[in-house]
Amino acid sequence: MVAGVLEYELRKILQEGLPLVEKPYQEIARQLAVSEQVVIEKIAELKRQGLIKRFGMVLRHHELGYAANCMVVWDIPDDRVDQVAERLANSACVTLCYQRPRRDKWSYNLFCMIHGKERAQVERQLQEMIEAHQLDYPHQLLFSSRRFKQRGARYV
User: Fold this and answer.
1) In this structure, what is the dihedral angle of CA atoms 53, 93, 61, 153, given to the nearest 10 degrees?
2) For residue range 128-149, what is the model confidence (pLDDT) as tens digits?
3) Helices 3-15 & 24-32, crossing angle to 10 degrees?
4) How many alpha carbons lie under 13 Å from residue 156 in its C-beta half-sphere?
5) Taking the CB of residue 114, how many other CB atoms lie within 10 A of it?
6) What does the alpha-carbon distance between residue 28 and residue 33 come to, in Å, rounded to a whole number?
7) Numbers of helices and strands, H then E, in the chain
8) What are the residue ranges spanned by the domains of the chain?
9) Strand-pair partners of 69
10) Is the four-CA dihedral 76, 80, 82, 86 of positive or negative sign?
11) Residue 50: beta bridge partners?
12) Are 100 and 111 in contact (CB under 8 A)?
């Protein structure tokens, strides 16, 4: 298979998600009629080129019974945001944590996601995390009111 065509076909397969088999790269290699090593090398090359940023998992938490989804937004002093973000990201209840620039009337600069089966569970987890890490900073809880389609990256 020609290199450009191989990369294009590989990106098409990857955007649909890894096959749910014991050896996903081997399965992709079978589909592309190349070796598993070629697939692994091409993925590494695509990452080096910036065409693939990272591999991640899209977890459909609602289907697993997690109906209370809360984005907690924090107003953290800029000189402490990295330290606080590390603490939050390492908390067992946090599934996502990232920094964003402050906006005109929006003073929050750190965001973390907590999923739970019910709202009270999320609130309890947040309170335990605040106490454990002494997070005495202004914050708000933004519970999801509707779901949007979740999907992975699109490459082609």
Assistant:
1) -10
2) 999 999 999 999 999 987 766 6
3) 130
4) 14
5) 25
6) 8
7) 5, 4
8) 3-48, 61-143
9) 115
10) negative
11) none
12) yes
- Give CA separation, 11 vs 35, 49, 155, in Å: 16, 13, 6
Strand partners, 110: 74, 99
Q: How far apart are the first and last CA of the chain?
A: 18
Structure-token pair, residue 96: 């996502």
- Can you list the positions of beta strands (E) in 41-105? 68-74, 94-99
Which residue, chain included where needed, has tokens 């005109």?
A: 104
One-letter identity of residue 61: H
Architecture of domain 61-143: 2-Layer Sandwich (3.30)
Distance of alpha carbon 99 from alpha carbon 107, whole angstroms: 12
User: What's the whole-model pTM score?
Assistant: 0.64
CB atoms within 10 A of CB 5: 10
| 12 secondary structure, DSSP code | H
Residue 151: pLDDT band (50, 70, 90) is low
